[in-house]
Amino acid sequence: MKFRHFAIVVFLFIGFLKINAQNFEMGKVTIAELEEKKHPIDSAASAAILFSKGTVNIKNTGSSETSVQMRIKIYKKEGYNWSNVQFAFPSGKLSAISITDVYTYNLVDGKIVKSKLKPEGEFLEKSNKNYWIKKITFPDVREGSIIEYQFKNYGGALNIRDWDFQKSIPVNYSEFKTIIPDSFVFKRNTTGFFSPKIKTQVANTYGYLAIENIYSLQNLPAMKEEEYVSNINNYRASISHELETIAIPGQIFKSFSSNWSAVVKTIYEYENFGLELNKTGYFEEDLKLLLQAKLKSEDKMTAILNYVKSNIKWNNHFGYGCDQGVRKAYKEKTGNCADINLMLTAMLRYSGLEAHPVLISTRSNGITFFPNIDAFNYVIAAVETPNGNVLLDATDEFSALNILPLRDLNWVGRLIRKDGTSDVIDLMPKKTSNDLVTMSFEITEQGKVEGKARRQYSDYNALSFRQKTASEKEEDYIEEIENKNSNIEISEYKRVNQNEFLLPVSESFSFTGSNLAEVIGGKIYLNPMLFFLSEKNPFKQEKREYPVDFGFPFCNKYTITIKLPENFTVENLPESTAVVMEDNLGAFKFDIAFTDNLIQISMIHQINEAIFPIEKYEMLKEYYKTMLAKQSEKIVLKRI
């Protein structure tokens, strides 16, 4: 056993030496690198970044130049997507970027063959009105290939691009260098579980004093997707910079140091934000008709939210500033999230409610760790009430009061008042969303099952159900359920409150199935959960890298009644059990009883917090293991 552990250590050490022996210079590809069949440390990797090197050079004039060098090894076909790269640039400024040294290297008959980028491998594509995209497809890519390229961006503004050291594939070496005149001061922020080494020196080789910082990391593992992660980029090893001061002796001193209050005040004063909230004439007559006889605050909020959802459709564009303005969006019945939700805020204010915009960063945008105007990419509305804030988002047709689209549920936002003050707003739901199942069925001697089921969804579970079924024909939805669940037959299907967003939505149906139980040796083996059985455990990995984000607290409750066939009784029944996690984070309860030819089951699976930190993972893993094992236990019936 000791020898085996020693062998593993030697293997990893050899792999480490191989990685660190690589040459981090463009064009210096070796036969050894091309012969490598798998990554020395991560044998499952489809590709790996052999090195990535970025440099940002800030000139004393305030402009900047950025260069990136990249070399990638392709191990498997699944890694071919890394041979397609793209670069964004401002419209009309193609000359501001340069893409050179684009080569593919292969080993042919023991010799290195170098293939150059072909004209048909370059493409230009318009992204939006502000940006174009240059796309490159590398030639002659196959398993074992190495690709490399160099990208430069000239004449950039006074900023430093964010640098991701870690990727979805292993990274052998990553380096980021900044060259900053001493008249400019940037503050930096690093994220992730790996801290880069930092080498700093003062240089006078540019005609002025400059600070050179080199940040480097080696042997970074791949960022692997895990179940229930809101945005993996929140945990990626990366570095970002923000301009703090400009100080030129005898000429200028300007501080850009900021806090969240200053940031939101700046955004509020933007023409396409704060001023849009003051425009009301375009909707006043329509709103007066809408609000007739509506005196309660909740009635006003619901009526206005539903009115905006019904009349203005979201164009799927993000941003806290209006694209076309609230008047035009109202007239053309479409707009971005700011057009819609600033309009919603203005209507709520006009109705007499204390409404304010709330700046947020969506899940896909991640979390920003220091104050800056780019921290937010979205805006919603909030109404202050004696019972707390009510959050609203009119971009989703199935949203309701305090039921936001899942993309909004990303930690905290900033509520901005008219006077410029702001508050932190907790976006994570506290109320439990229920999924309640009631099912009764009887089983024949031949193992055929017939019964009825009713399922009710509330709050975020209702939102998800409505989103899923909105564009699906009922007959297709029923057929999908039948095919996924042992070819059962469904009849008398009925759905209630599909469009009553303040109420739970429910579905009910009758069902029959010949494959839901097994008859072996005259005994009947039955899983009482039938087609509601959860077979997949999302938490199987030994070590969890990121917090578990369920999105919202939830409770799944099942009430099941089973009628046995005549002349049969119970031979084996699962035992009742209960598991309660520490700190009341969740609970699982399973109760079962057999009386008068009936089996009655009550099962509750409840998660009380939306987010579980990494240190709670082992407890959560054991909880799910116990719960799923209990759900999988079968009832055995025998003939009397």
What does this structure look like?
There is one protein chain. By secondary structure, the protein is an alpha+beta fold. The chain is 18% helix and 39% strand. The chain has eleven helices and 36 strands. The strands form eight sheets. The chain has an eight-stranded mixed β-sheet with strand order 5-4-8-2-1-10-13-12. It has an eight-stranded mixed β-sheet with strand order 25-26-24-23-30-34-33-32. A hairpin with a 5-residue loop joins strand 23 and strand 24 (449-457). Helix 6 (297-311) runs antiparallel to helix 8 (337-350). The protein is globular.
Précis, in short:
Helix content is 18%, strand content 39%. The chain has 640 residues and is of the alpha+beta class.
How are the secondary structure elements laid out?
Blueprint: H1 2-20, H2 31-35, E1 47-58, E2 64-74, E3 84-90, E4 97-108, E5 111-116, E6 122-126, E7 131-137, E8 146-156, E9 163-164, E10 171-181, E11 184-191, E12 197-203, E13 210-220, E14 238-248, E15 252-255, H3 260-268, H4 274-277, H5 284-290, H6 297-311, E16 313-314, H7 326-332, E17 334-335, H8 337-350, E18 355-360, E19 378-385, E20 388-392, E21 412-416, E22 422-426, E23 433-443, E24 449-457, H9 459-469, H10 474-484, E25 489-496, E26 505-513, E27 517-520, E28 523-526, E29 548-549, E30 554-563, E31 568-572, E32 577-580, E33 586-595, E34 598-607, E35 611-612, H11 617-632, E36 635-639
Parallel strand pairs: 1-10, 16-17, 23-30
Antiparallel strand pairs: 1-2, 2-8, 3-7, 4-5, 4-8, 6-7, 9-14, 10-13, 11-14, 12-13, 14-15, 18-19, 18-21, 19-20, 21-22, 23-24, 24-26, 25-26, 27-28, 28-36, 29-35, 30-34, 31-36, 32-33, 33-34
